[in-house]
UniProtKB/TrEMBL annotation:
This is Spore photoproduct lyase. The lineage of its organism: Bacteria, Pseudomonadati, Thermodesulfobacteriota, Desulfobacteria, Desulfobacterales.
């Protein structure tokens, strides 16, 4: 998937990394938002499948938890015992095993 839009949380809009990323993608629209909910509402308002739409968005936000976590598993998946890198929401990698 290709990134088609970038959202930046107001709190980190002036972070040097945000500037670096925006310079790397000058052709992609960047919108500052005041909350994660604004991004979720945008995704749900598109005519695409929400999961597909989310994979076309880069949402720059501060990390709100552990970066490396124990794989959560679900009732439908047998827990593998792996450690996962938790990059957050709107991941563009489209892994077939992601839960």
């Amino acid at each position: 998937m290709k990134i088609s839009r970038i959202f930046v949380l107001d709190e980190i809009a002036h972070d040097p990394l945000v500037r670096t990323i925006s310079e790397q993608y000058p052709h992609i629209p960047i919108k500052q938002v005041d909350s994660t909910q604004t991004v979720y509402k945008f995704v749900l308002s598109t005519k695409k499948d929400p999961i597909e739409a989310g994979k076309e968005i880069l949402f720059l936000n501060h990390n709100q938890g552990a970066f490396v976590r124990k794989c959560p598993g679900t009732r439908a998946y047998i827990c593998c015992g792996y450690q996962i890198i938790h990059i957050g929401t709107f991941c563009t990698m489209d892994c077939s095993y992601c839960i």
